[in-house]
Amino acid sequence: xxxxxxxxxxxxxxxxxxxxxxxxxxxxxxxxxxxxxxxxxxxxxxxxxxxxxxxxxxxxxxxxxxxxxxxxxxxxxxxxxxxxxxxxxxxxxxxxxxxxxxxxxxxxxxxxxxxxxxxxxxxxxxxxxxxxxxxxxxxxxxxxxxxxxxxxxxxxxxxxxxxxxxxxxxxxxxxxxxxxxxxxxxxxxxxxxxxxxxxxxxxxxxxxxxxxxxxxxxxxxxxxxxxxxxxxxxxx
Length: 236
What we know:
By secondary structure, this protein is mostly beta strands. It has one helix at 166-171; strands spanning 4-6, 9-22, 25-39, 42-46, 49-56, 59-62, 66-73, 76-79, 83-90, 93-96, 100-107, 110-113, 117-124, 127-143, 147-162, 179-192, 195-207, 212-224, 229-235. It contains 1 helix and 19 strands.
């Protein structure tokens, strides 16, 4: 199986390859199937990409979707179609216009997802915006600054913690606190901090510091921190 490498300005048609490497400003017109995709320069892929491993260290634009066992984005990526990945790790900046599905999603940088995100394990220490539903067995969100948003969040266990530096806390109220915003958060076990939501529903619900929740519905246990604001709580 051949390799495809573009080091300078160049273009190629799609096809099946062992390794695809874009080091310059390369364009591939058509669908690509390969074992490994490396984008170190500025790559444009006009078609769907299927790979075992995809790594974007430069800038990539994909007009189709990506299906891969492993995807790592250290640079900048815009993917207009759906993303299906066993493991997706975003340490740079990713704009994903479609659905995201897979086993594990790790966000250390910044991610924007245009539709729903369905994974087994969702971990975020960076910023994210999800226009649809975030659904995962385990949701671990650790916000270090700025704001993250999802329309709805569902899962078995959902945990959101917020970490502020002492320097940033001295500048409050001039700088907004790190926060998570959602319309609905629903799960079995929910622990939240620095979260704004209209409805939080679960078996066990723990509302921590700096939360603003319209309604809490719980089956077994409900706890609320002194600094948290909860409009109403109901045992269901």
